[in-house]
Amino acid sequence: MATAITECTPSFLAAAGLAVLAICSYLAVVLRRGGVAGAKRYPPAVGTVFHQVYHLRRLHDYYTDLFREHMTFRLLSPGRGQIYTSDPAVVEHILKTNFSNYGKGESNYENTSDLFGDGIFAVDGDKWKQQRKIASYDFSTRALRDFSGGVFNKNAAKLAHIVSDNAAAKQPMDFQALLMKATMDSIFTIAFGLDLNTLSGAAADEGSRFAAAFDDASEFILLRFVNAFWKVARFLNVGAEAALRHRIKVVDEFAYKHIRARADEMSVGKAHDAESKCDLLSRFIQATTSESGEVDYKYLRDIIMNIVIAGKDTTAGALAWFLYMMCKHPEVQEKISEEAREAADAGETASIDDFSQSLTDEALNKMHYLHAALTETLRLYPSVPLDNKECFSDDVLPNGFSVGKGDMVFYAPYAMGRMERLWGEDAQAFRPERWLDEHGVFQPESPFKFTAFQAGPRIWKGVRVQADEGLRGSAAPFLRAGSARQGRQRELQDHDHALHQAGSPSHGCGEMIVLGHIHIQIQ
Q: Where would you find the membrane-spanning parts of this chain (predicted)?
């Protein structure tokens, strides 16, 4: 027997180890639920959580393959159960019908609280309700919509100039990095009333350090979801956890400095100036300052940073994929360019700045095809490809499957956008027309089928309006910049479809763009 073991290959031993872990996981689940022959029904087990590691490079496509076989399934894991679904009825159940029984939960809070704090995207219950009430009102105001729209338009025009100048000089661009800077400048201005100016490269050292630390901290927080030993690393203060602690310190120092400065600015003696402030921080200070004048700086830091976190990467990712799809589908870009010129009443010779200024709410609301193209992009490349909720007490899903207290239920916007049973035989195709009626008017789908913006009580109507208008207002100037240089041959070399962040310039905007492992050449 000893001889046989020594002759085993490393791959065989690894496979055997995974098998043992899978069996142990299965037994743990069965024993926890009282045996195999119980009355409860559970989704089919199609693998273990260890399969996710093996498929990490194509994780969301791996989920998609599994969902084509089962609308709802389990991946076996030690401890809590993990259920995955692409069934809109189940999504509606956990996000709306039985909303009070599903939430972020302790596990998500532990993973994210160092950066998210007690902000709205990390908490449940009364804390969530209080922040949602304040934020929903502010996001619905006309003043904030006008302010945020102007900020997005200004930075989109600035970025379009940079792209156009680099294209004219035949200079390569890391386009996604430019988008990340543009959205950071926009979101930070809307949230804090302060322009970091990272896009132009003229940002102060303090602002640049904050932006870099913020990006690093977000990445380190994400790593906690796949690193089972992150708490050990945090205790020992080593590796990514040591780096995260340093980045959080930089982020907090910068955030608290500006929150305190703004609170002082808006003290009782300067209340008349506060009324003219349109940024979110000023509004939250007004709404949360006690009658005695006491300001909860930690509360303000958490809610504002959550808005920055939610808006920055999601907007940049959506725009990157949208512009990439415009390169692959020049006929779509031509339709949008024509629609934008007509809606904005901009002549052929209008400059980028003049065109951007003409993008009023009225003009954007006329751009149904642009809205459809952006929505179609988010269907195929959602900013959040996988999301989860923790079950707070035993439950039965609409499909009859049981969920135990503490189980995690995942729903998958990326996979759902590719399901033929939801979108038809052409589900894999990029076709904006699927969102338009016979008159060319945009028609939304059920938020439980198209889940890019969440659904149920956790969706903010005002925030979704802001997101829609921000994306449209940011996208249109690029298409204007590109429409002046039409008729080129395009060659796209996509070296790694599995990467879930990519982008490109609009048609005719550039010569060579390098985005991670995806190279786009326009000749």
A: 12-31
